[in-house]
Design brief:
This is AraC family transcriptional regulator. Pfam families: Arabinose_bd, HTH_18. InterPro entries: AraC-type_N (IPR032687), Homeodomain-like_sf (IPR009057), HTH_AraC (IPR018060), Tscrpt_reg_AraC-type_HTH (IPR020449). By secondary structure, the protein is α+β, with helices and mostly antiparallel strands. It contains 17 helices and seven strands. The strands form two sheets. Strands 3-4-7-5-6 form a five-stranded mixed beta sheet. It has a two-stranded antiparallel sheet with strand order 1-2. Helix 11 crosses helix 14. The mean pLDDT is 91.
Length: 339
């Protein structure tokens, strides 16, 4: 079970290309176990498992890893071929250089290019030609996949110092904080990710059998399920665990478990663009959404499971998170939302 959820926005954004080309997107949603009704709730979220499956359905149905949004079709298997080429690279720098060389074999080009300047390194988006990407989903995916693939290959998080975007802050801009875990800069002169150059010398630690295993669900999993253990946010989620019915550990205990001082941990969370309170709230929200999918649990049971002694407090909190009551949300998941 994955306790991470993905905003409705990304579900609709991922389908924009398919919709534009006349594919039956409602059928795609149903195959991924997502009720089209649920998406009429503005702040709805789906599980990362559902989102990962939806991505695979879109890629396979369209035979296009750019999901109908790119300047050309990128046939399914292109990403896997790139991975087969980079697995033999000695370092992260070699990975990013070779991945770029591979991507530029295709015209028009859709890629990220590694640039270095002093102590900084950055991956810069390079897309040639016209794209149909109304929600910036293809561009976001490109950044996320290259960053998380690199982190996976070297077995450690490539900590981002800054994420830049050459467009103005979109309505879903708040979600970017949970995706990139670093300061964000919109209306920039390019779309890029900046990190410390020292990561470039990190050795590739994965082998071919691991890569084959990884490719069974990637790049869909890279988009829907970040390796959260790589961030302080993820480590705190793991320490809190899934049993939210008992009192949650306090910040001082968490800091001690992570071998750091509360002051340092507070600063690190600020760098990741979040706070301890927000992590607890989002964990409760994600677990509540997960439990609502289990029909045998009553809404009062769920309230208790996610740490609310009063069902009315849970109703209020859930409405703040999603815009609707738990009951209306469950109806949406079942596809019974009143028109």
């Amino acid at each position: 079970m994955s306790d991470l959820t993905v905003s409705r926005h990304f579900v609709q954004a991922a389908l924009a290309g398919a919709e534009n080309l006349g594919f039956d997107t409602r059928q795609m949603l149903r195959e991924a176990g997502i009720s089209p009704d649920l998406l009429r709730i503005e702040m709805a979220r789906v599980s990362s498992d559902q989102f990962s499956l939806l991505m695979q359905i879109i890629w396979n149905r369209m035979d296009d890893e750019c999901m109908g949004m790119g300047p050309r079709r990128v046939r399914t298997g292109t990403f896997a071929t790139m991975c087969a080429l980079v697995i033999d690279c000695p370092t992260l720098e070699a990975v990013y250089r070779r991945a770029y060389q591979f991507s530029r074999l295709f015209e028009p080009m859709v890629t990220m290019k590694l640039e270095t300047d002093g102590a900084k390194a950055r991956l810069v988006k390079h897309i040639e030609g016209e794209i149909h990407d109304p929600h910036h989903f293809m561009q976001e995916s490109l950044l996320v996949i290259w960053h998380r693939l690199g982190s996976w290959l070297v077995g450690q998080p490539v900590e981002l110092e800054k994420a830049q975007f050459d467009y103005s802050r979109p309505p879903h801009g708040d979600e970017y904080r949970q995706i990139f875990h670093c300061p964000l800069e919109f209306e920039s002169d390019c779309t890029a990710l900046t990190f410390d150059k020292r990561f470039l010398s990190a050795p590739v630690i994965r082998d071919k059998p691991e890569m084959l295993q990884f490719l069974q669900t990637s790049p869909a999993d890279l988009l829907s399920r970040p390796d959260a253990s790589n961030t302080f946010t993820g480590k705190i989620r793991a320490l809190i665990g899934r049993d939210l019915s008992k009192p949650l550990p306090d910040f001082e205990w968490i800091a001690a478990e992570l071998h750091t001082s509360p002051q340092t941990l507070r600063r690190r969370l600020k760098q990741e663009n979040t706070s301890f309170q927000e992590i607890k709230d989002l964990l409760r929200r994600d677990m509540a959404i997960y439990f609502l999918g289990r029909q045998e649990l009553s809404i009062n049971d769920i309230a208790a499971k996610v740490g609310f002694t009063e069902p009315s407090t849970f109703h209020r909190a859930f409405k703040k998170w999603t815009g609707v009551t738990p009951g209306a949300y469950r109806e949406g998941e079942r596809g019974n939302l009143r028109h």
